Amino acid sequence: MIASVLDIDKVGREDSFYDLGGGSMQAIRICARAEQETGLTVDPLTLLENDRLVDFVAELRGANSTAATES
Question: Where does the record place the Carrier domain (predicted)?
Fold first, then answer.
């Protein structure tokens, strides 16, 4: 998903969103797609503050587990 939005072949776990040419508009697109595909609300600020894929996914997992325990 991230690779297709950034129009690159692949993204590694340790790659930085910014080093791959990402910016705020791409973050919005990526988060909108993530929301469509997973049903989770994803704030683009989460990606902008956690620009390595591994960190972004960890934040999403943490937010998802917090939301699940609050339900």
Answer: 1-64
